[in-house]
Amino acid sequence: MKLKGKCAIITGASQGLGLAIAKEFIKEGANIMICARHSKSLYQAQQELIHFTSDPIKVLAKPTDISKLEQVEALISYTLAELGKIDILVANAGIYGTKGPLEDVDWEEWCEAIDINLKGTVLQCRAVLPHFKKQPSKKKIIILSGGGATKPMPFLSAYAASKAGIVRFAETLAEEVLPFNIDVNTIAPGALNTRLLDEVLAAGPDKVGQSFYNQAIKQKTDGGTSLQLGAFLCTFLASSESDGITGKLISAVWDPWTKLPSYIEELKQSDIYTLRRIVPQDRNKQWDEI
C-alpha cells in the first residue's frame, strides 16, 4: 500500500475528482479528512467512502468553505485533533465561476472565483505549513490546476486567471519550502465529465462561446478523461515514489509521470513542466536582428 499510515486532507471531495482521489487514497491505506461547502453531499460521500473499504481506515468529514480563513484553520485543527497528523494536502476544491464577456459578468461572482480557486488554495497551504514544517518526514501538497493555466479561456476569465495564478503560486511555494522536505506540485487532470462540464452545457454558447460549447458537447458525448487517471496521478505524487519531484505542473493525460522518478536530477535543474514565457529563439526566430 503506497499510502499506508499516511493522513490526508482532500478538499472539494464530495463528488467528482475529489471523491475519486479519496477512494484511491483509501485503497492505498491513507486515513482521510474530506471537506466541501455543502454538508448533505459531503456526509453522503463520507458514508460511501466508509463502506468502500473494510480496513480500519479513518474517514472524517467537515463542511468547509475554503475561501474563509477561520473555516480553513478550523479544518486543520480538527484534522490534527482527530488524526494526530497531516502528511498530505490535496487542494482540489474549485469552481468555474461566472461566465461571459468580461464587461458583462457580475463582478462579485468574478471575485468569488478568485477567492475560492486562488485565495482558497493559498489559505489551505498557509494553514497546513506550520505543522508540515515541524515534521522531519516528507510532506506533500498537491494542487488541482487544469487547462485554464496553460491556454486562454475566453468567457471564463476568472477561472483561467485563478488557475494560472495557482501554478505560479505552487512553483513559488515549492522553492520557499524546499528546506523543509515538502514537495509542492500542481496537476492537470484532463477534460473531466463532472458538474463543471454540466455548468458549461447549461450556460450555453452565448455565455461560454460557441467553440468552447461545441468542445463541451463533444466531451460529454465521448465520455471525457477518466477520473481514475487524475486520482492515480495524485496518489503517485502523494507517495514516496515521487519524492523530490516539486514545483511542477504535471498533466495526467499527456506527461509520462510514472517515469519521472528516473529523471529526478534533470527535473531539479530544469524548467520542464513549469510556466515560462516563450521568446523568439524558442521558435527558431532571430528577431533581435530587426
Structure description:
It is a single chain. This protein is α/β, with parallel strands linked by helices and about 290 residues long. It has two domains: about 5-190 and about 225-290, 3-Layer(aba) Sandwich (Rossmann fold), CATH 3.40.50.720; about 195-225, no CATH class. About 45% of the residues lie in helices and about 10% in strands. It contains ten helices and seven strands. A seven-stranded parallel sheet has the order 3-2-1-4-5-6-7, sandwiched between helices. β2, α2 and β3 (about 60) form a beta-alpha-beta unit. α1 packs across α9 and α3 runs parallel beside α4 (about 105-135). The chain is globular, with a radius of gyration of 19 Å. The model has no long low-confidence stretch (mean pLDDT about 95).
